[in-house]
Amino acid sequence: MTNHPIKFISQDDASFPPLLRQISDPPEGLYVRGTLKDVPAISVVGTRRLTTYGRRATQAIVQELASGGCAIVSGLALGIDGEAHKAALDAGAYTIAVLATGIDDATLYPREHVKLAHRILEAGGALISENPPGSPSFKFAFPRRNRLIAGMTAATVVVEASLNSGSLITARLALDENREVLAVPGPIWSRASEGCHALLKLGAKPCTSAEDVIRALKLDRPELMAEARAALPLTEEESRLLSLLTEPLHIDQLSLQSARPAAEIGSSLSLLELKGYVQHLGGQIWLKKGVLAKLNPK
Predict the structure, then answer these.
(1) Same domain, 54 and 191
(2) Considering the domain boundaries, does residue 1 fall inside one?
(3) Which of 104, 128, 100, 125 shows the shortest CA–CA distance to 114?
């Protein structure tokens, strides 16, 4: 992996994650291996002891987010974190692993995910840490690492978590920084979902799809729309959808008229909503933004 050297960047560096500069306790700098990109990013975290349900939920949500152009940030840990990175890679998406140790091969942790770390780098992703190469895995470093995961993303999705899971620390830190927190509901008898259910009781938004994440980002905020539009220019498929949405249309109608599966249409619509081009009228009926005012003038 000599073609992925480690470099140190300060807060003044143009590639330093912009949202990370805004947190109450930003790192003085980051050790980076790979490529940092300024694209909309969502963190996906959870228990190390994932269930089949948790694995499937992670894969489904991450693939939807990835197809919408979102980067996936997680902690490379065993369980949900690793599944999030793998699902992003399988979808051809950009992913960042935030480590509590050094990012050199000798101290990279967990050791079971060294190959996954290499796969992230080979796919154009990045490994980052505020700890220098050679830093071992100290228990106190993981909560510090979690603030970076929460701080560099607009929203955090907790897929599965027990009541004592470190993922709840990430969720709390995200809330402290006024970032969105979503939790995936699980079976009521599953201990692996107890932490998620606790978050939901405390006001976290439920997440059953990428659409829930997009909606949670308060898309009426102009700065978020501008960031998404700049980082993710309109594709041909998105332009085609916009040309159809001069009147309210159900997602099934859009699927029929564009000859694309409804699942793909849903991902495109979520990204168009993120960019501020369309609005959801309810019941999977969509419309180009600004058209409603023309249809119902005051």
Answers:
(1) yes
(2) no
(3) 104
Integer Cα distance of 220 and 206 in angstroms: 20
Confidence of residue 220 (pLDDT cuts 50, 70, 90): very low
- Model's pTM, two decimal places? 0.77
HEC letters along 191-257: HHHHHHHHHHHCCCEECCCHHHHHHHCCCCCHHHHHHHHHHCCCCHHHHHHHHHCCCCEEHHHHHHH
Q: Could you report how far apart the first and last alpha carbons of the chain are, in Å?
A: 63
Q: Are residues 140 and 281 in the same domain?
A: no
d(CA 211, CA 137): 36
Q: Which domain holds residue 146?
A: 6-223
- Per-residue pLDDT tens over the stretch 97-125: 999 999 999 999 999 999 999 999 999 99
Nearest to 105 by CA among 96, 113, 114, 92: 114
d(CA 125, CA 134): 21
Which of 201, 223, 245 terminates a domain? The answer is 223
